[in-house]
Amino acid sequence: MKKNVILLSVDALRPDRLSCNGYRGITTPNIDEIAASGTVYDDCIAASCLTPVSMASVLTAKYPSKHGLRNPFGQIDSTTVTELFKNKGYATAGFTGINFLSERCKFNKGFDVWDEPTEETGWFQKQYQAGPGEEMTTQWGNWWPPKMMEFLAQNKDKPFFVWGHYFEVHFHAEKWMLKQGMLEEGVLADNAYYDAKVKYLDEHVIGPLNKYLKDNKLWDSTMIVLMSDHGETMMRKPSTPLDKMDMEDYPKHRTLSQGDLRSTLIMKGVRQPHSRVSSLMRSIDIVPTILDVCFDECIWDADGQSLYGSSDVLPAYSEELFEKRGDGALQSIQDSRFKLKRNNTTGDKALYDLHKDPNETDNIIKDPQFLEVAALFGEQLDKHLIEDRNSKFKPEDEEVVTRKLRELGYI
Predict the structure, then answer these.
(1) What is the CATH number for 297?
(2) 3-class SS letters over the chain
(3) How many domains does the structure of the chain reveal?
(4) Range of 240's domain?
(5) What's the pLDDT tens digit per position in 140-187?
């Protein structure tokens, strides 16, 4: 019998905000239930803190230099996991809550059903001038969970692969959710209602999904992968009222810090229930693990490896080369102890001993005893700076996407 797969990526979900990971600010019993039935990975590092680059790496199991999407204007030019499942006879559906994960960028490849934000379905729309005499609309969010449940009901008697990218934990979603009565004014309001949004996800998305799978006898035959595309760095003034916030008050993910890169990863259907893995792993390892469990086979020329039974700890590479978004074109690489971060725009470099300095405050790049480590890591960063293989969008399209990023607070 073929195993079903549900891949849920939650934008900006920090692993330390889940009660299965020891958090006490809220409880997340439904996410905890998935964790209790599967494996929790404590140190999963994203390939980027920019959503389209990160998720392209997840779906292809390749680093950006291989899959071709290195900024919001690129396109995936590698095989995706969805195409493999479709070729094996699976019903496939994809739902995304932000239109940077779009058909334009080729995220829809291999999906029978594809749903991305539009002017009609986006939960927030903002009109502004894209150019002289030209008005454009940015699409924020997309309440797709009911559509996913409908797809599951229609395809419960056949093998299915579903990917849903949930956006409503991301900053700015709280404004819409408060207006809809989904959140209570003033309750769990710190960090732009971050905990309140995670609690809502657990109660109103994960809870109904778990119940449906159990009621329809699909729980045991369905692999659930709950992950985040990247982490989140909390804002400086957690109690600032929403109407008084500026962009520096909001949580964000622009710097390749550990807070930006450490991602949630819980996999039901891998190893044994109630298991936990503390060693370093990469988000590019998720898909090879899924395919190993489902088909017991290797996949295309992937940078990731299956975590099923593997004990090898490989360095984790990450990048944020879209200079307009933050402080420059950034790269980082880390192993189980050291992390090198490099700003290719300014030339600044920093080496951190994460065992002694998990908050990355002490730059040891000039310490003689670590020169060899820094040099080796620097060479590995250089290898990822090969030219993008796929074409860029037209200049006018690049301007549109840049404006969307600015409206969302990315730049």
Answers:
(1) 3.40.720.10
(2) CCCEEEEEEECCCCHHHCHHHCCCCCCCHHHHHHHHCEEEEEEEECCCCCHHHHHHHHHHCCCHHHHCCCCCCCCCCCCCHHHHHHHCCCEEEEEECECCCCCCCCCCCCCCEEECCCCCCCCEEEEEEEECCEEEEEEECCCCHHHHHHHHHHCCCCCEEEEEEECCCCCCHHHHHHHCCCCCCCCCCHHHHHHHHHHHHHHHHHHHHHHHHHHCCCCCCEEEEEEECCCCECCCCCCCCHHHCCHHHCCECCCCCHHHHEECEEEECCCCCCEEEEEEEEHHHHHHHHHHHHHCCCCCCCCCCCCCCCCCCCCEEEEECCHHHCCCCEEEEECCCEEEEEECCCCCEEEEECCCCCCCCCCCCCCHHHHHHHHHHHHHHHHCCCCCCCCCCCHHHHHHHHHHHHHCCCC
(3) 1
(4) 4-316
(5) 789 999 999 999 999 999 999 999 999 999 988 999 999 999 999 999
